[in-house]
Design a protein that fits this description.
Layout (H helix, E strand, L loop, with lengths): L7 E3 L31 H8 L4 E8 L9 H9 L8 E3 L11 E5 L4 E3 L1 H5 L14 E3 L11 E9 L12 E7 L6 E6 L2 E7 L7 E6 L6 E7 L4 E8 L3 E8 L13 H11 L3 E5 L2 H6 L4 H18 L5 E4 L5 E4 L2 E4 L3 H15 L2 E3 L1 H5 L4 H7 L14 H15 L19 H17 L1 H10 L12 H17 L3 H20 L3 H20 L3 H36 L8 H9 L15 H16 L9 H9 L12 H8 L7 H35 L6 H32 L17 H5 L4 H12 L9 H19 L3 H24 L2 H4 L1 H23 L3 H13 L6 H7 L1 H14 L3 H13 L2 H14 L1
Parallel strand pairs: 2-14, 2-15, 15-16, 16-19
Antiparallel strand pairs: 1-19, 3-13, 4-7, 5-6, 7-12, 8-11, 8-13, 9-10, 9-12, 17-18
Helix pairs in contact: 2-10, 6-7, 7-11, 14-19, 15-16, 15-18, 15-19, 16-18, 21-22, 21-31, 21-32, 21-33, 22-28, 22-29, 22-31, 24-25, 25-26, 26-28
């Protein structure tokens, strides 16, 4: 069968020369003069149709395929009509112990060794087998005084399809045995093999029939350990697809493995197709030296063709990936050049090539994939979700066979293969052209709304904007009305840059609440006052409810009553009809910061209604209060009675306050970019997006990581907001005060998002009756307040659960205090214990706050409770060493005594002002 024209680049077959054992001597790249078949994958495609007993695909990749992503669906698709069972190859210790196909639980004494171990001297050989990695339960050369035991338990994953979950045959591939190691294999507690391993360094194997069992236990015992090269669950006939991930790999390790060992392994496994799919580590590290990368990939392909003669090799190109540029997302610019290098290497080695970058949609397609529902890509804009990985494998299979695929979105016209040098020249010319247009691009970035480039504090362009604004402010800050009107215009522009034409909502809320506040104050009759406060409440909460909760309400009604109601965005319909836009009317877009500015504006009419505040003098002053840009989109929620009196005071800012503002800005940027964003992108988001892919240990670490991430994200923005406002002479309230030091849930809410806590207390909890109407009513009031507080954070059942758990925590906390008071927390041990319990309870609640849905939260809890495999520790910790070190550092700083934190703040303030400004500029530029 032929490939679909345009999706696979098929290159002529070449006969490789000799390829060396190790990386020291290069392979013979002499081309053969013999004619080559037009389709190098023809033998593989023929094996699918000619009824060969077993057809094996060995699929190598990086973290993109971890957990049996891509390969699981590929296996399922190819088995339709061709059969086959089992999951293929794995090791006792894998980067991901719980995949879409199998769940592994191994004893903690298993260690992984690869080419790095060989180079570091941990291994004396590089006979690393088909997985380019071996496992041992004792270090090489060590003989224990008494026999040591190790085990591996294998079960089908709950996500496995029927064929993968069927266990027919097990193969244990090993080498370097002394012949003294005993192995027992049990299937559903029935022993199916017992014996000693065969001695010698060559590649050997054990086979046993599993008879459809779904619980396999392999037990090892010996004073020495063999090299375990692989374990395979498979069938005698049909399709076998091996998932062979190497986290952090660029696919250049094959030449680091002993050639003879690799050849023996391939002889035993007899693959019919070898697939290579590597991406992220190439994209991040290969920026200019594309020719060197091409040569390295070519050497890998030539080696594979030598050790597995006659086996076709398929190179899958880099998929689209994106990275943050400030707070915008853009595809890596070097991807086309890397793809071209991969294409040329495949051409010269006689391999096949598929370009998923073009199949996905080209540049920035990963962003669109992440925006799909359900998402096809994770929020790191690098890795695929399960549906996304399935989509990629579907595209691959459709491209393999002649079908109607050319009539689908997966068809792309065949691109001309540019020589690498031409590609590099095009990139250089593009870079020159880009430099010439930088001034124009900067102008557009500052003054035009772009939903993909929100105008927020971590975007470099914001700081250019702020310096311009500050220069203008310095000319008029002494004139109160002019100052307020100027900052009102600036704030409205800031919201336009952040939220686009939803600016009209901010203006609408400003007009409504200014008018209601004025009418409330001037009305003599209470009934009129109540009418106008009701109008204010309904206007604000109505807007909030429509934009934030309509979809949730419609989905809830459909789930409860089996209806098929649809969301309809009336504003989008109006815009499409009269403004020529093309918005999706079935999805209501949530305006930026709507939860903050509606609550802030409501506090004004509440305070006027209660007689705590007189109305502002004019609508410009009120508009400035509602829209003040430092705290407009992320808080803190500033109460009118605290902020409005500042409007009529003269500007004042001491040198110490200015230094404190600079310190807060620097601290906020470091919290947000260095800690929060790094932890999220490199670990937390991956685990929360697909918890079933990761071990219980990784899930638990992700929960603790998210606790630090969300604190640094929220408090980082708040620190920047307070610092910016202070520079302009306005004092915003502290919003976070070391919340994880809290010795109880009540204490936590006095430290966490303090402005929201106070708003809920003053305008919801106390009006409900507070604690004035008995213990039962107090508990009910607490629950109502926290449930609505949870709903304020997001329109989802998981936010309601999060709020409900905190409500329960507050009720229990109040009952505890009524019985024991604060006697327990007065001593050091009692307080440490209380902080520990509170921190872990809050961390537990974060699972529901961050999870994609309730099912994801359940999966995460299941992984933590049931799949906490000790054998995964040693593979997980090194893989995320930088993330874990940053988490430790972040929590360590958080729990430092306040006097220590004050001391380094004091050191910054005592620095010469010029050094402080330089420090802030460096933080802004470097981060």
């Amino acid at each position: 069968m032929a490939f679909l024209s345009g999706l696979f680049y098929i290159f002529r077959e070449q006969t490789p020369g000799s390829v060396p054992d190790t990386e020291e001597s290069p392979p013979d790249t002499t081309l053969s003069d013999e004619p080559a078949p037009a389709d190098p994958l023809a033998p593989f495609l023929d094996s699918l149709t000619e009824g060969k007993g077993q057809v094996r695909i060995m699929y190598y990749g990086d973290s993109q395929i971890e957990g049996d992503r891509v390969t699981s669906h590929l296996r399922q698709l190819l088995r339709c009509g061709r059969g086959g069972t089992g999951s293929g190859l794995f090791l006792p210790s894998m980067p991901v112990m719980y995949t879409k196909s199998i769940w592994l639980r191994s004893s903690s004494n298993w260690e992984r060794y690869n080419s790095v171990s060989y180079r570091n001297g941990e291994l004396t050989h590089n006979r690393l087998g088909p997985l380019l990695t071996i496992c041992r339960y004792l270090p090489e050369g060590m003989t224990a005084p008494d026999p040591v035991k190790a085990d591996v338990r294998i079960r089908p994953s709950v996500f496995a399809d029927g064929t993968t979950a069927e266990f027919e045959i097990i193969r244990l591939i090993y080498s370097n045995s002394r012949g003294e190691e005993r192995v027992i294999i049990s299937a559903n507690d029935n022993q199916v093999f017992e014996g000693l391993l065969e001695s010698g360094q060559g590649v050997k194997e054990i086979r046993a029939n599993l008879n459809g069992a779904d619980d396999i236990l392999i037990e090892f015992e010996g004073t020495t350990s063999p090299d375990i090269l692989g374990i395979s669950i498979e069938s005698k006939e049909g399709i076998i697809v091996d998932n062979i991930p190497r986290r952090g790999s660029a696919g250049l390790e094959f030449t680091l493995v002993n050639r003879d060992n690799l050849k023996e392994s391939f002889i035993i496994l007899s693959p019919d197709l070898i697939v290579l799919q590597y991406g992220l580590n190439i994209v991040r590290n290969v920026r200019k030296e594309y020719g060197f990368y091409k040569q390295g990939l070519f050497r890998q392909l030539m080696l594979l063709k030598d050790v597995a003669p006659g086996t076709p090799v398929l190179v899958i190109g880099v998929t689209d990936m994106a990275e943050a540029e400030g707070d915008s997302i853009a595809s890596y610019s070097n991807i086309p050049a890397i793809i071209n290098a991969q294409k040329e290497a495949a051409y010269e080695a006689g391999a096949a090539f598929w370009d998923p970058y073009e199949a996905m949609g080209g540049r920035s397609s990963i962003i669109k994939w992440a925006e799909k529902r359900p998402p096809l890509a994770q929020t790191d804009y690098v890795h695929f979700t399960y549906p996304g990985a399935d989509t990629l494998s579907q595209m691959l299979v459709e491209a393999m066979f002649k079908s109607d695929a050319q009539d689908t979105i997966y068809y792309f016209a065949e691109a001309d293969s540019l020589p690498l040098q031409d590609m590099l020249q095009e990139i250089e010319q593009a870079e020159i052209s880009e430099e010439e247009n930088q001034a124009e691009a900067l102008f557009k970035e500052i003054f035009r709304y772009d939903k993909n480039k929100p105008f927020i504090f971590t975007a470099p362009v914001f700081w250019i904007f702020f310096l311009i604004i500050l220069a203008g402010y310095s000319l008029i800050y002494k004139k109160l009305f002019l100052r307020h009107f100027y900052l009102l215009l600036v704030s409205l522009f800031f919201y336009y840059k952040s939220g686009g034409f939803f600016l009209f909502l901010l203006i609408f809320v400003t007009i409504i609440d200014y008018t209601c506040g004025l009418l409330i104050f001037k009305s003599d009759r209470k009934s009129f006052k109540r009418l106008f406060i009701l109008i204010s409440i309904l206007s604000n909460l109505g807007i909030l409810a429509y934009f934030k909760y309509t979809g949730f309400l419609v989905d809830s009604v459909n789930d409860l009553f089996g209806t098929n109601l649809q969301v309809h965005d009336f504003l989008a319909s109006f815009s499409n009809a009269y403004l020529g836009t093309s918005f999706d009317i079935s999805n209501i877009i949530l305006p930026v910061g709507i939860s903050f500015f509606t609550f802030q504006s409501l506090s004004y009419t509440f305070d006027v209604f209660r007689g705590r505040l007189e109305p502002v003098k004019n609508i410009a002053d009120f508009g400035f209060y509602v829209s003040f840009f430092p705290q407009l989109v992320a808080g803190p929620i500033v109460r009118a009675s605290e902020f409005i009196p500042q409007l009529y005071k003269e500007f004042s800012l001491s040198k110490r306050e200015f230094s404190h503002a600079l310190f807060l800005i620097s601290k906020g940027l470091i919290k947000k970019i260095v800690i929060s964003d790094f932890i999220a992108v490199n670990f937390v988001d991956r685990v929360f997006d697909m918890p079933s892919l990761y071990s219980g240990f990784e899930n638990l670490m992700a929960v603790y990581g998210y606790g630090l991430q969300i604190y640094c994200d929220f408090s980082g923005y708040t620190d920047i907001a307070i610092g910016l406002a202070l520079i302009m002479g306005f004092r915003l309230p502290v919003n976070f005060n070391s919340p994880y030091k809290a010795a109880g849930i009540s204490d936590f809410w006095k430290r966490w998002h303090i402005s929201l806590s106070r708003w809920l207390k003053d305008y919801l909890y106390i009006p409900l009756g507070g604690n004035r109407k008995g213990k039962v009513r107090t508990g009910i009031n607490l629950m109502i307040t926290m449930l609505l507080g949870g709903l304020w954070h997001g329109a989802s059942l998981r936010f309601i659960v999060w709020g409900g758990l905190h409500g329960i925590g507050l009720v229990i906390n109040r009952i505890w205090n009524s019985i024991f008071g604060d006697r327990i927390t007065q001593n050091r041990f009692g307080r440490v214990l209380a902080v520990f319990i509170t921190f872990n309870f809050v961390s537990f609640c974060w699972i529901f706050f961050r999870a994609q849905d309730m099912e994801s939260a359940r999966l995460m809890l299941t992984q933590i409770a049931e799949n906490f495999s000790p054998g995964s520790y040693m593979s997980v910790v090194p893989a995320y060493a930088d993330v874990f070190l940053l988490m430790i550092a972040g929590y360590f700083i958080h729990f430092l005594p306040e006097r220590v934190k004050e001391s380094y703040r004091g050191l910054f303030i005592k620095m010469p002002l010029i050094l402080q400004i330089i420090a802030v500029m460096l933080v802004v530029i470097l981060l």
